[in-house]
From TrEMBL, chains A, B:
<keyword id="KW-0627">Porphyrin biosynthesis</keyword>
<feature type="domain" description="Uroporphyrinogen decarboxylase (URO-D)">
    <location>
        <begin position="137"/>
        <end position="153"/>
    </location>
</feature>
<comment type="function">
    <text>Catalyzes the decarboxylation of four acetate groups of uroporphyrinogen-III to yield coproporphyrinogen-III.</text>
</comment>
<keyword id="KW-0210">Decarboxylase</keyword>
<feature type="binding site">
    <location>
        <position position="204"/>
    </location>
    <ligand>
        <name>substrate</name>
    </ligand>
</feature>
<dbReference type="Pfam" id="PF01208">
    <property type="entry name" value="URO-D"/>
</dbReference>
<comment type="pathway">
    <text>Porphyrin-containing compound metabolism; protoporphyrin-IX biosynthesis; coproporphyrinogen-III from 5-aminolevulinate: step 4/4.</text>
</comment>
<feature type="domain" description="Uroporphyrinogen decarboxylase (URO-D)">
    <location>
        <begin position="20"/>
        <end position="29"/>
    </location>
</feature>
<keyword id="KW-0456">Lyase</keyword>
<keyword id="KW-0963">Cytoplasm</keyword>
<dbReference type="InterPro" id="IPR000257">
    <property type="entry name" value="Uroporphyrinogen_deCOase"/>
</dbReference>
<feature type="binding site">
    <location>
        <position position="316"/>
    </location>
    <ligand>
        <name>substrate</name>
    </ligand>
</feature>
<feature type="binding site">
    <location>
        <begin position="25"/>
        <end position="29"/>
    </location>
    <ligand>
        <name>substrate</name>
    </ligand>
</feature>
<comment type="subunit">
    <text>Homodimer.</text>
</comment>
<feature type="binding site">
    <location>
        <position position="149"/>
    </location>
    <ligand>
        <name>substrate</name>
    </ligand>
</feature>
<feature type="binding site">
    <location>
        <position position="74"/>
    </location>
    <ligand>
        <name>substrate</name>
    </ligand>
</feature>
<dbReference type="GO" id="GO:0004853">
    <property type="term" value="F:uroporphyrinogen decarboxylase activity"/>
</dbReference>
């Protein structure tokens, strides 16, 4: 009998055969085979091409033997799918043709229908067929983070327009975020329906909010998006610089909390009400010499023992200039030292 | 008899006549009179022109009647003064001709001598003469933050090169940071000698480090820089996104801790060992309607009562597009509602 995949066992708080490991952004920009596969294709074209999406999703699984694949996509894919004018500029990120500013802009946001994203359903099907028992983690951006791109029109350092809208027109904010939550939730549901066995919701920029603002302006919508996915499906919720939000983040109903490298996992365990934790090696630690990197990884593993379950990961996405050999060393090390 | 300026009283943990208020980046880019004064002058030229520096330092004091002036400068001014090739690009920030990468680059960093910065001594003298009893806060960047600009060659999102150097060559890191600490410290000392009655050390990017890395790679050098200033001089130490570092930051010996908007001051008070606190209205809250902004300010004032002393400020620098009328409203409100 095949035992439950280590990732799923850990995510459910059961005892896995070893500490599972995968990397945020493992599929993509740091891999030479990715650059080869992507040559001549824009990011959105790649996300709409099921064969290419499947190939890119599989590449890190083949190279590293990580315990889970993460679905290759971009957080703005569902917005582009409903007709919002967006381009993903290399080296910059998503850039909107017209930023969201007023009530009228709500008309540009209709509900996402599975028929809008047949390429997602197909790509998930191809990937899960190739993965066999290895889990695929579905991927979506969270409503607050998505709203920040929509309102700023692109990446931002301080989210002035986003926070101004949320404070000055809470009613419009609520209508916008509710729509985005439905879109994010549906984007995750499409992936789980097609075979993804877990999901991760990326609220990358939620850490820019104080806890009071987070609870009022971001948490309800992240919760709504996560609730779209069946409770039996492991649901990970992640943000950067959220040391001050960890307690609040558990109130989304997420079963796994992704922690960035700023908060040691043993400390995070005391503040996340029995949630399984994911993380949290500093993504820059993989630029250290192998021995120093593995020593840091050992600290993460030791701290992770304080949590009811631990999925090893970096504390944020793989940096584009990361040496893949270092990630391979990390995977092997985590597997070897935690095998039961 | 003139009573002690509210800022100094609060910074020393004494009882001020009212809660003092000033704004990080009050002198500069958000003020129309600043843009006028600076027209046709580069940032470094402005920092080396005593009359212009004094004028810019005074502008927000005249406009807002804040309780302290902050010396107008840039964190790379002392580096430029010892011959490091640096340009401050509008909209980007400091950009180095040649980033710091190896031991050889140490030769480019000699000690700062007061004779290197006669324009600082002169500008401080002019400003303190004009300020009268109102205090001038001396300004410097902290060694870690300065190192990040030196090593990355400019602003960065993830500090990969900086953290790689600190992990892979701790000996070179120590020599570099010790030199920078001496330079920062001397830059502050020149200002206090010339008449500044307090200082603030800006470790803006220290929050990118875990507490363990911060304690090893940043804290000792910030401490060294602050120790250059007499203990009787109020010394404020500030960083962004340092919710996880507040305890550690008090170990620098700073008498005032600057807190960003992510951590409520009552919570911060419980973690900063009796230090006076400065902060911490979200800089984006000044884009809200006046009433909503003042309601947020009241929450900050209420939370600040839990600290042994409170200096009202934003949680980070004034955003360039801030409406000065809103800052004026804030100052008046803090003064009116806290007068004893």
């Amino acid at each position: 009998m095949e035992s439950t995949a280590a990732y799923l066992a850990a995510a459910r708080g059961e005892t896995p055969s070893h500490t599972p490991v995968w990397f945020m952004r493992q599929a993509g920009r740091s891999l030479p085979e990715y650059k080869e596969a992507r040559a001549g294709t824009t990011m959105l074209e790649a996300c709409r091409n099921p064969e290419m999406t499947c190939e890119i999703t599989m590449q890190p699984v083949r190279r590293y033997d990580v315990d889970a694949a993460v679905f290759f996509s971009d957080i703005v894919v569902p917005l582009a799918a409903i007709g919002v004018g967006i381009e993903i500029k290399p080296g910059t990120g998503p850039v909107l043709d017209e930023p969201f500013r007023t009530e009228k802009d709500l008309d540009r946001l209709r509900n996402l229908d599975p028929c809008d994203v047949p390429y997602i359903t197909e790509a998930v099907g191809l990937a899960t067929a190739e993965l066999g028992p290895k889990p695929l983690i579905g991927f979506a951006g969270a409503p607050f983070t998505l709203a920040s791109y929509l309102i700023e029109g692109g990446p931002s350092r301080d989210y002035v327009n986003t926070k101004t809208l949320m404070r000055n027109d809470p009613d419009l904010w609520d209508r916008l975020l509710s729509k985005l939550a439905a879109i994010c939730g549906e984007f995750l549901r499409v992936q789980t329906e097609a075979g993804a066995s877990a999901v991760q919701l990326f609220d990358s920029w939620a850490g820019s909010l104080s806890e009071a603002d987070y609870r009022r302006y971001a948490l309800p919508y992240a919760t709504q998006a996560l609730m779209t996915v069946p409770e039996s499906t492991p649901r990970t919720y992640f943000g950067v610089g959220t040391s001050h939000l960890l307690e609040a983040m558990t109130d989304t109903g997420a079963s796994v909390i992704g922690v960035d490298w700023r908060t040691p996992l043993d400390e995070a365990a005391g503040r996340t009400k029995g949630r399984v934790l994911q993380g949290n090696l500093d993504p820059t630690a993989v630029f250290a010499e192998p021995e120093a990197m593995l020593a840091e990884a050992d600290k993460v593993l030791a701290a992770g023992r304080a949590a009811p379950g631990h999925i090893f990961n970096l504390g944020h996405g793989v940096h584009p200039t990361t040496n893949p050999d270092q990630l391979k060393r990390l995977v092997d090390h985590v597997h070897e030292t935690t095998a039961r």
